[in-house]
Write a structure and sequence with these properties.
By secondary structure, the chain is mainly β. The chain is 6% helix and 42% strand. Strands 19, 20, 21, 22, 26, 43, 44, 45, 46, 47, 48 and 49 form a 12-stranded antiparallel sheet that branches. Strand 23 and strand 24 form a beta hairpin.
């Protein structure tokens, strides 16, 4: 250990050899040699405390680069937990396998600080292994819990050198973790979580359901589980701006805002889920180095653009990588930190967007109503959007998202017609029936849901059968059961006094035998056309401009298979076959294919998007749901941390995770 070694920043792989080398691997006990195991760990800005299997506490001072050791004396037994505290004096508490609790008041050379090591013992109350410790902020209270469920409160008077312990609670299962703040003790056991209000000796259980598995980890006081979301946290951290963060049993990341001592459940009645992108759980550095090397090699051999080769290789590599679920979380002014279970840290230092899917019950319908389909389109009133809903192929309803009561209007279908697809724009709704026939219903400001249906004359197309159609603001695209694509100018039915709008046949993308396009999807502003083939592959039409509305070519988009695709005015969203939701990033006029896919929290049965990227969906259970977003801006210099750091918006910010 160098005397004046500079502080070392956190690295991808940086073992603390200077600390480990100061702890012996073996000690001599009489005539035999005993291995030393490290059994407990805690760290503060001043110290790193390490407990051992031989009852020795090793305390490393970061400021002085010095290691000291403290013997618990008496019978040699394993230290099971340690807890540091830096207040006016530096304190460390130690729990052992036999139930002993030892407190040390450390020596400090600074003026007015403790000049002599002092020790306090809590004996006789814990009869089994001490599993958790928690200090009060001023060091006058210490709480300890054991594997039999007993919780002991020790009152310290450092000036008088007095420690008075007493039994506070006795639970039915082992104490997993303790945390104390604002006169409230949070207790996490193998069976439940509870809040103990020390001022009133009152107990409040968190949630009503027993834990489904033994263990758990809770480390913030301001937390109440939202059982309606089915959230089962395994690790929780309280960050800045009064925000609580949680990792659940599935490795999902959540946050909730406005968490204060007076309102521990936060300002919302639910958690917001944050997307942890796929690359978070992979070996980022080695994967990227491999991709970079392989991209240049293959691009040179194939005479293809490096970017396209890299994108294809990235997808191929990712499908081979084993999933490693995030397991721990911590939040500080530097960012949100998680571990992937592979000795890696991942940090997000910028803005993070949280997602919450809100259940919406249209007025006049039962909460148990099962919906099968939803499609969003610009409203004929030019304000907001219209939602077109179906329960089956024989009914249709429309709702304005600007109607706060969400009262649906019934749209009568043509007699004996079963609609298999609905597409709409601002002035018309198109329906495709089981026979491939098209019906159009004109919309207007005065009659936003339309008056009647008109069957479209498709005689120009011959004996083909349409499988999909999609309306833009001025143009309509369609494809038949063989994958041939058609383009038409005009969204209204034919006017006999005018020339018939002509369908233009567009050559589909070249594909292997047995594969063909099954659906086409245009944007509300006619600037994009995307398609899905029979294998779920995604394609985009390139070269679309005002002068060339039919485009010039097709490009395959790798990365995922689509069960459903929906297009807004600026980007593309996909529902994967397993219900996952993803968005395409990087789409511009000059780059219609975009750059990459990124998953969005949620699992749905049907997905649609408004022109302004507001997502609506049908849940797996058949309910109508709307995606709400809240953005957390990680700004440590914010003057108003309780409010200015969090805002609700449509959610276009893109969170980035770094691997350390």
């Amino acid at each position: 250990m160098a005397a004046n070694s500079p502080p070392v920043p956190l690295k991808e792989f940086c073992p603390l050899y200077y600390l480990l080398n100061a702890i012996p691997a073996k000690v001599q006990k009489g005539f035999r040699s005993v291995l030393v195991y490290l059994t407990a760990l805690d760290a503060s800005s001043e110290y790193i405390a390490v407990g051992s299997s031989i009852g020795m506490l090793y305390l490393y001072c970061r400021r002085l680069n010095q290691m000291k050791k403290y013997n618990l004396e008496g019978k040699s037994e394993s230290i099971t937990t340690v807890k540091l505290l830096s207040c006016f004096d530096d304190l460390v508490a130690v729990g052992t396998a036999s139930g002993r609790v030892v407190l040390f008041q450390l020596v400090c050379p600074l003026p007015g600080r403790n000049k002599q090591l002092r020790r306090f013992d809590v004996v006789g109350l814990h009869k089994s292994t001490v599993t958790a410790l928690a200090w009060s902020a001023n060091g006058m209270k210490l709480f300890s819990g054991d594997d039999k469920g007993k919780i002991v409160y020790s009152s310290l008077d450092l000036d008088q050198g007095v420690c008075n312990p007493s039994v506070l609670l006795e639970e039915q299962s082992a104490v997993v973790q303790l945390d104390y703040s604002q006169k409230v003790l949070l207790v996490s056991t193998c069976q439940r979580c509870l809040l103990f209000y020390t001022e009133h000796n009152a107990v409040q259980q968190i949630g009503t359901k027993p834990r489904k598995r033994m263990g758990g980890c809770v480390n913030v006081i301001c937390f109440v589980v939202s059982e309606r979301q089915g959230l089962e946290p395994v690790c929780i951290s309280l960050g800045d701006h009064h925000t609580a963060w949680a990792l659940d049993t599935n490795g999902n990341l959540w946050f909730r805002t406005g968490v204060t001592p007076k309102k521990p459940q936060g300002e919302d009645d639910h958690w917001w889920q944050v997307s942890i992108t796929d690359y978070v759980v992979f070996d980022q550095s080695s994967l990227f180095q491999t991709i970079i090397h392989a991209s240049h090699t293959l691009a040179s051999a194939a005479q293809a653009p490096v970017e396209k080769v890299a994108d294809k290789l990235r997808v191929a590599f990712w499908t081979q990588q084993p999933q490693c679920q995030p397991s721990l979380i911590s939040v500080n002014t530097g960012g949100v930190w998680i571990t992937s279970g592979r000795n890696e840290f991942h940090v997000a230092k910028g803005s993070l967007t949280g997602t919450y899917w809100m259940n919406v019950v249209p007025r006049g319908t039962a909460s148990t109503t099962k919906w099968a389909f939803v499609f969003a389109s610009p409203a004929p009133t030019k304000e907001g959007s219209f939602l077109w809903l179906r329960q089956s192929c024989t009914d249709l309803f429309c709702i304005s998202d600007h109607n706060p009561q969400f009262r649906p209007s019934t749209v009568q279908l043509p007699p004996d017609v079963e609609m298999v697809q609905i597409s709409a724009c601002q002035d018309a709704v198109w329906g495709l029936d089981t026979h491939g026939s098209v019906y159009i219903r004109s919309l207007s400001k005065t009659c936003p849901s339309g008056m009647h249906w008109t069957r479209l004359d498709l005689s120009q197309l011959g004996r083909i059968k349409l499988a999909s159609c999609s309306c833009g603001s001025q143009n309509v695209w369609a494809c038949d059961v063989n994958g041939v694509v058609y383009f038409r100018v005009g969204t209204q039915p034919l006017n006999p006094s005018l020339m018939l709008p002509a369908w233009i046949s567009i050559e589909p993308p070249q594909q292997p035998v047995g594969m063909h396009l099954v659906s086409v999807h245009t944007s509300p502003n006619d600037k994009m056309l995307w398609a899905v083939d029979s294998k779920g592959n995604v394609h985009v039409r390139t070269g679309i401009t005002e002068d060339m509305p039919v485009g010039t070519d097709w490009e395959h988009i790798p990365g995922l298979q689509a069960g459903e695709l929906t297009v807004s005015s600026r980007t593309v969203w996909v529902r994967c076959p397993n219900g996952d939701v993803a968005r395409r990033y990087g789409i511009t006029d000059k780059n219609p294919a975009g750059d990459y896919w990124k998953k969005v929290p949620g699992c749905v049965a049907c997905l649609t998007v408004t022109p302004l990227d507001e997502l609506w969906a049908i849940s797996q259970s058949g309910g109508l749901i709307q995606r709400l977003t809240k953005t957390f801006r990680h700004d440590s210099t914010s003057a108003k941390p309780s409010g200015s750091a969090v805002s609700v918006q449509s959610g276009d910010l893109e969170e980035e995770w770094e691997v350390i």
